[in-house]
TrEMBL record:
Record organism: Streptomyces amritsarensis
Name the UniProt record assigns to this protein: MBL fold metallo-hydrolase
InterPro entries, per the entry: Metallo-B-lactamas, NDM-1-like, RibonucZ/Hydroxyglut_hydro
Domain Metallo-beta-lactamase: residue ranges: 26-216
Length: 239
């Protein structure tokens, strides 16, 4: 492992990709480093957290974050984006409209989960909407590495996006379609009967030997994803 990443509290997964587990909600932030561009996956829960992630990412890479991918629209995964001015933001098709019309709900959800009201209000006021909407798959050329953004949902929400990073071992950033630190969280915007199929798509794209990075918790294997799929299928009554 690169010592600089470890000292900064980041886990280096492959030569191109790493991640950090943020405090409080244990939300994963991913980083993919190309020769020309830098992709961040989920920018944190507020502007303060986003600014800290930005500083760490710039220190680790020596460059600014140029692209951001939202794995879904929950507050702990999107509200830090305004701390990255100029970055191109990607999300599943329909997410931009959902965020634009649901600002008050997003603010309320953040406060209910413990974010300070003033921080939630500021982050929602400066909310960044995805300028690029992924309806199927979208390949990002970062220089020396092509990253695949795949709209694999619905499941955890109606707008789930996964990020596939090739390398010596393929890395799959799953968002909250996969959770390791607790049971899969199914809120009112979840689509339980389609969630198992979303995990099938993750496994088909990642393969047996990939690293699967959950939205919360430790990195897992394909076997863990299959087991979580079985749990969700039994819970929702689908095969």
């Amino acid at each position: 492992m690169d010592v600089r990443w470890e000292e900064a509290g980041w886990e280096r997964l492959t030569g191109r990709a790493g991640r950090r587990r943020l405090p409080v909600w244990d939300c994963t932030v991913g980083l993919v480093v190309g020769d020309e561009s830098v992709l961040l996956i989920d920018p944190g829960s507020c502007l303060r957290e986003g600014a800290a992630v930005r500083a760490e990412a710039e220190r680790l890479t020596g460059r600014s974050v140029t692209h951001i991918a939202f794995t879904h629209g929950h507050f702990d995964h999107v509200l830090g984006a305004a701390a990255f001015p100029g970055a191109e933001v990607f999300g599943a098709v329909g997410l931009a409209a959902l965020l634009a019309s649901g600002r008050e709900e997003l603010r309320g959800d953040a406060v209910r989960h413990g974010l300070a009201p003033e921080e939630a209000a500021e982050a929602v006021e400066r909310l960044v909407l995805p300028g690029h909407q992924v309806s199927g798959e979208w390949t990002l050329e970062l220089g020396g590495v092509q990253v695949l953004l795949a709209n694999v949902g619905p499941g955890h929400t109606g707008h789930d996006l996964a990020v596939f990073v090739p390398g010596e071992r393929e890395t799959v950033f799953c968002g909250d379609l996969v959770e390791e630190s607790g049971e899969p969280s199914a809120g009112p915007d979840a689509v339980p009967r389609q969630w198992p199929a979303a995990l099938d798509r993750l496994l088909a794209l990642g393969g047996e030997d990939a690293l699967y990075v959950p939205g919360h918790g430790a990195v897992v294997t394909a076997g863990f994803v299959r087991a979580q799929r079985a749990t969700l299928a039994a819970r929702s009554g689908v095969s």
